[in-house]
Every structure is written in C-alpha cells, then in structure tokens.
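User: Sequence for AGE family epimerase/isomerase below. Tokens please.
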Amino acid sequence: MTEIAPIASPGFDGPWLTDPQHHAWLMQDARRQLRFFDASLRSDGGFDVLDVDGTPLPRAGQELHTTARMIHSYMLGKAIGHPGADRMIDAGMDYLWTRHRDAKWGGYVWGVDGETVTDGTKLAYGHVFVLLAAASARLAGHPEADRLHADIAEVIERHFWAEETGLLIEEYTRDWYAFSFYRGMNSNMHGVEAMLAAHEATGEALWLERAGRILDFFTARMAPDYDWRIPEHYSVQWEVDPTYSGNPMFRPAGTTPGHSLELARLLLQHWDLAGRPATGADTRARHLIERALGDAWLHGGGLAYTVDFDGSVLSRDRYWWPVSEGIGALASLIKLDGAEAARESDEDWYRRLWRYAETAFVDTARGGWFPEVDADGRPAARQFQGKPDIYHALQADLYPLAPGLSRQAGALMQGRAAAPFG
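Assistant: Structure tokens for AGE family epimerase/isomerase:
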C-alpha cells in the first residue's frame, strides 16, 4: 500500500472537505484501523482487546458495547470494501445472540467470557448499542438483523423507555430489579444515536420521534439553562445532580465537552432527517460546539475530558474520543453551510483537531489510535490499556467523507464517498 502523506495537500487553500488528498488520507487511515482490529477476532467468535502493538491483552470479560460497536464499525468497513468485514459482523452478531443475550431473563448482559457471565447488569447504555448493531447489520444485509432488531426493540420498550418523560431508564440487575435512582445523559445520548440509525435502517418513524424527545430535553431545555454546557447526572425525577461523581470514565464529575460535540452532531442528523424544521436546532448545535471547544481546548492541544458548570477545567486528561467527536461535529457544520461557504472558524477548528489527532493519536506505523496522551502529546496509559476502540476514530475518518448530515452510513454503503464535494 502506498503511504499517503501529509494529511492534506501542501499549500491547499480550499476547504479540506474538497481536497482529494485529505479524502485519500482519511480513507487510508480508516483501512489501516480496520486491518489492525482484524486481529481482535478470537477463534471462539469473541473479540480481544489489543495492546498497542496488536497483540491480545489478558481477557477480563467482553463488554456488551464492545461487541455491538464492532458490528457497527465493520459495517462501515464493509461499506468501503474492507476484506473480511463480513466475518467480523457475523462473529459479533452470533456473540450478541448466543452469549450476551439472556435466554432466562431477557435482554443482554453487560459482561461475558465465553459461556460465563462476568457481569449480568442490564444497562440502557449497553442495550442502545445493541439497537445500533441491529441497524448496522440491516444496512450490511445481514440475515439475522431483523431478528435482533425485533428483540432489542421489545426489550427497550418493556424496560428502558419511559413514555412519561421521553427518556431512558438507566440500569437494572440481571433479573430486572431497578437497583438505583440514577439517570444519565450518556446513555440517552447514545440512545439518540441508535434510534436515528434504526430509523435510517428501517424507516420506522417511532425511532425518529423518540430521538427528538431526548434531544429536546438535553439541547432545548437543559443546555440553554446551563450556558450551553449539558449536565450529565440526574435524579430519578430528572433533576440535575451537580455534585455527582461516579465511574471516572463513564460517569465523571462535572460536564463533558466531548458529549456536547457528539450530541450536536446527532442533533443536526435528527434535524436533517425531520426535514429541517424551523426549530432552531441548527443554532443550538452551533452553540453546543462553540461552547465545548472554547471550554475544553488545552494549552499545547487536545480537549479536556471534563469541565465544571462555570467552564473551568476539572480533568485535563486528553482522550482520543472527544477529538474524534469534535471532528465529526465540525465536519457537520461545514457540510451544513457548504464547504466553500463554511465559516472560516469552522474550517480552522476542523484543521486544528485533525492536526492534533494526526500527531498525537494516529499510529501510522501499526494502525489504530492511541486512546490517551499526556500533556506533551505522548501516549499514556492511565485510564486505558492498549487500543480498546475502533468505533470513535473510524467514524472520525469516514463521516467527513459522506456527503450529508444524515444517512451517512447508507451513503458509504452505496459508494458515495469516492470524490470530494463542495
């Protein structure tokens, strides 16, 4: 394979989304990531977490979102013609149905290791990723996609969707005992992602309507009241819990700029699918993006993981996924205005994020992205070991290549990412 460098054409003055070399570099990195993560597939159909050099790390149970995200990621890989994508999708679909799926109690357990359940918790966060996997499998033409979709849709309806609030309930024990009163933004945000994918894959209007209700709560009700920083943690009555501090990765204290960037992209996707109504969704998305970048960009580069409600930085940890989501959000703003008419500040931010990602996170020698770096941009391993994720970084590569704000996966499946666009 011929190496394509640098990240964009030297001296190119136009928007990077119209630069053929930038498109070629994105596609090259996507293919490099997929080749790296091919090695995660085990002989029993599960997926190993890989060390930075691609060797499997010791097994500690396979988490539900990992299995589901691999299906989604390799659907995107199939869309760009990655050899062997089908075997990864097949393995993930079988593992979901025969290992994660709980034949006794229904739903999908969080952690498994072969036939052993390592964590039987039933989380909204994990179940919405199963919905995403079902939608992705349908786009990929998998024969068991409809079965998985029907099952997960029934589980979400029965246990997780609260019609009175238009939001998702968070967590249960394996036998469906609601053991906490916690409510959270993160699971609902990924619920929006999954519901929009389900709508795009099936045409079912219910998913679009429910995604809209979740988005309205967080972006039209909560964000404006908190100066466009979205509270993460809530009580059972959906009252903000400003002092909550839980799991340092999934439920950290404060607000999470990376989630604002992700939710802004999803807000634009929903708005586009809904026919671009005059609801101010596009303006809200811009407010979220500009606030997140303004708060979180650190001296020396990278995005702070968390900030307080006044915008002061709480955690300076530099992870790959907020930068990935920033790339997707800025690409969405540039597409919204048209690449040639996009704001100069949007183009500047898009380039800044990609330059930082290229120098700090992208492993051009072996493939995949380092998940965290220190203040000097060197790989670190405080929170993560190895390279535990392809999902965020692969989307950062491929979403700028799709021409629209919505139906991006479908566009890639139809081969509509071959040429730069204006």
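The first strand starts at residue 62 and ends at 63.
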